[in-house]
User: Which sequence fits this backbone?
């Protein structure tokens, strides 16, 4: 039991790290989407002026 405990904590730590990486990745992905939408809006500004 004692020998498996560190491995268990290591696995938990790995899972937590992967989850936070995924969260950060989806956050970045959302930001990129916002930026590209904003870019599109800026590029299409003359269309809105009509």
Assistant:
């Amino acid at each position: 039991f004692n020998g498996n405990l560190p491995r268990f904590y290591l696995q938990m730590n790995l899972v937590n790290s992967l989850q936070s990486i995924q969260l950060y990745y989806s956050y970045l992905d959302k930001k990129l989407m916002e930026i590209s939408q904003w870019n599109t809006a800026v590029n299409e500004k003359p269309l809105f002026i009509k």
